C-alpha cells in the first residue's frame, strides 16, 4: 500500500505538498521514517542521487519509490509487497496533475505545504485509485506498463547511501583540516614573526662561525 506521499522542489528542498495517511494506518508508521525521508531528499538536492526513477529500500518492510522530473521530486513510502510498477504509475499520474500548475507560481513558492492547498486534495484523489493493486483497472495499468517497458528504476539500499555520505563528510573534513594547516603556515602573521626572528638567527650563525674560526686558529698556532 502507498503510505505517504510528498512533493519537493529539488533545487532547495522546499516541500510543496504531502498526501494524507490512510485512516486505518497507525499514527507512527510514517513518522518513524521521516528522518530517512529527509536524508534522502537532501542527497537528491545535493545531486548525489541523480537517477530520475529510484527505489530505496529502508528495511524489510518498506521502501521509498521516487521520481524526479523537471526539478520536482515525487516521493512515496510503500510496502515492499506493493507492486513496483504500480507505485511509479501512481507517481507519474501525480506528475501529470502537477504539470497543469503554473510553473512560475511553483518556482516562486517560499513557504512549505501551505502555498498550494488544492494539491493535497489532488494527491488524496489520485492515491485513492492506487490503494488496491488488485482492481481490474490497476492490473490493466501494470500489464500495459510491462508491455511498454518504460519504468526502469535504479535500486539502492539506504545503508549504502548513508555509508557513502559518511565517507564523503570524512574526506571533506580532512581536506578542510589540511587547508587550515596550510593557511596557518602561509599566513601573514607567521611571515612577520619569521622576519622578526631572522636577525637573531643571523647573529647566532655569525657567533658560531666566529667561535669555530677562533678554535681553528688556536689549533694552528699551537
Automatic annotation (TrEMBL):
SMART domains: Longin. It is a single-pass type IV membrane protein. GO terms for biological process: endoplasmic reticulum to Golgi vesicle-mediated transport; protein transport; retrograde vesicle-mediated transport, Golgi to endoplasmic reticulum. One of its GO terms (cellular component) is endoplasmic reticulum membrane. GO terms for molecular function: SNAP receptor activity. Gene3D superfamilies: Longin domain. It is found in: Endoplasmic reticulum membrane; Golgi apparatus membrane. Its main location: endoplasmic reticulum. Residues 6-100 form the Longin domain. The chain crosses the membrane at residues 193-212. Keywords: Coiled coil, Membrane, Protein transport, Transmembrane, Transmembrane helix, Transport. Belongs to the synaptobrevin family. This is Longin domain-containing protein. It comes from Cuscuta campestris. The lineage of its organism: Eukaryota, Viridiplantae, Streptophyta, Embryophyta, Tracheophyta.
Amino acid at each position: 500500500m502507498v503510505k505517504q506521499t510528498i512533493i519537493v522542489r529539488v533545487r532547495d528542498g522546499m516541500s510543496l505538498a504531502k498526501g494524507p495517511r490512510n485512516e486505518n494506518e497507525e499514527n507512527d508508521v510514517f513518522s518513524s521514517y521521516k528522518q530517512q525521508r529527509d536524508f534522502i531528499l537532501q542527497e537528491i538536492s545535493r545531486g548525489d542521487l541523480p537517477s530520475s526513477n529510484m527505489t530505496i529500500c529502508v528495511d524489510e518492510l518498506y521502501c521509498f519509490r521516487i521520481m524526479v522530473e523537471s526539478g520536482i521530486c515525487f516521493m512515496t513510502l510503500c510496502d515492499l509487497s506493493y507492486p513496483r510498477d504500480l507505485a511509479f504509475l501512481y507517481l507519474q499520474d501525480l506528475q501529470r496533475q502537477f504539470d497543469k500548475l503554473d510553473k512560475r507560481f511553483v518556482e516562486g513558492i517560499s513557504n512549505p505545504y501551505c502555498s498550494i492547498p488544492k494539491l493535497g486534495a489532488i494527491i488524496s484523489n489520485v492515491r485513492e485509485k492506487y490503494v488496491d493493486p488488485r482492481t481490474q483497472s490497476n492490473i490493466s495499468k501494470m500489464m500495459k506498463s510491462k508491455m511498454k517497458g518504460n519504468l526502469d528504476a535504479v535500486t539502492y539500499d539506504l545503508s549504502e547511501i548513508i555509508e557513502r555520505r559518511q565517507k564523503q563528510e570524512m574526506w571533506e573534513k580532512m581536506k578542510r583540516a589540511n587547508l587550515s594547516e596550510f593557511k596557518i603556515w602561509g599566513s601573514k602573521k607567521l611571515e612577520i614573526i619569521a622576519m622578526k626572528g631572522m636577525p637573531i638567527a643571523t647573529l647566532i650563525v655569525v657567533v658560531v662561525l666566529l667561535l669555530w674560526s677562533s678554535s681553528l686558529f688556536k689549533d694552528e698556532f699551537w
